[in-house]
Amino acid sequence: MIEIPEHGFVDVEALEDHLSEPSEALVSELAEVSGDWLFVGAGGKMGPTMARMARKALDRAGNPVRVRAASRFSDSRARESLERHGIDTFVCDVLDREAVGNLPDAANVVFMLGMKFGITTNPSLAWAMNTQAPAVVAERFSNARIVAFSSGNVYPYLPVESAGANEETPTEPVSEYGWSLLGRERTFEHFSRVNDIPVAIVRLNYSAEARYGVLVDLAGRIIAREPIDLSMGHLNFIWQRDANEHALRAFGLSVSPSAIVNVTGAEVLAVRNLSERLGFALDIDPVFTGEPADTALLNNASKSHRVFGLPLASTDEAVAAVAHWLKADHPTLGKPTKFEARDGKF
Questions:
Q1: Cα gap 312→187, rounded to integer Å
Q2: Best CA proximity match to 321, nearest among 104, 3, 1
Q3: Is the pLDDT reported for residue 142 higher than 70?
Q4: CA distance 101 to 238
């Protein structure tokens, strides 16, 4: 079920089945892929459904290679879900070189680990997670292809009338978080060069589904009758099923030295308009404060759209799915994006 149901998702399992549903294009691409897969940091928001998508696509392609996931798995439910869907899991602190050395070999590695929230209170740990852990993984899996997650936070804020930053836009982070992510990218680039590792770095901005993301953040404020700050007045997002697929297909772009690919939706969205659409779906008028700035953190993903096609989920479908989910009082992850923080302090 690639399409978002008209009346939303009935429960978590239906939602995750959708978020992990591969397209025929992905199944075709994975049919000839050799070697096992490893998702590093797979216990987070995107990891479980992305690993499941890979497993589904490989199964449908008749490709028997193994899919594994490594994480600290602070949320045991994520580990149980992965195991239930045919993915072997390994509890691992990726800052522990010996523990990473004991992970099974893999030919295709997705690096999803990172630290965003808490960087202002524990910056040294964030830098270690965002730069040292990539070095440990890149050294261990020097014979693999790697897709490594990054973020549009490495770009400068650009005028809202622009299409956003593309892969050729010079990096200019506005926060320590953004600089640590640029450090992650440079780490993977270094090992890609010296060890001839094919790497694709995915600059994601922002993934959203019914339990978290910018839509859930805005809808939560609308439901609580809290004012929505319009200072960060524009944004991009991509529905998580599409983000999962585009990231997995990014293996086809991996090269040495590393390649960059932006992953997000096709629209630059005004926060006011997006909030009004959510408010209409929720039958609640949103309240606003502040005025939109002339600049915002914006990604131009036209390169990935040319290669992978446009995201399949529309903004209206995503808005409706989030509204249905919250009106049904289904659970959320309780992990706000803090996209509105123009100082980048998370």
A1: 33
A2: 3
A3: yes
A4: 34
Contacts 24+ apart (CB under 8 A), 337-340: 337/206, 337/212, 337/213, 337/214, 337/217, 338/117, 339/206, 339/214, 339/217, 339/232, 339/235, 339/297, 340/229, 340/231, 340/232, 340/271
Where residue 346 falls among pLDDT bands split at 50, 70, 90? low
Is the pTM here over 0.85, yes or no?
A: yes
> Alpha carbon 90 to chain centroid distance?
21
Q: Of 28, 22, 73, nearest to 49 (Cα)? A: 22
Instruction: Report the mean per-residue pLDDT for the chain.
Output: 95
pLDDT at 118: 66
Confidence grade of residue 343 (pLDDT, cut at 50, 70, 90):
confident
The two tokens of residue 315 are: 């903004």
Q: Which residue has the tokens 């959320």?
A: 332
Q: Considering only CA atoms, which of 235, 256, 247 is closest in space to residue 307?
A: 247
Task: With CA atoms as reference, report the closest residue to 286 among 227, 198, 345.
Answer: 227
166, 202, 261, 293: CA torsion to nearest 10:
-10
In whole angstroms, what is the distance from residue 243 CA to residue 247 CA? 6
Cβ atoms of 118 and 53 closer than 8 Å: no
**For the chain, how are helix, strand and coil distributed in percent, rounded to 5?**
40, 15, 45
Q: Which of 53, 272, 143 is nearest to 69 (CA)?
A: 53
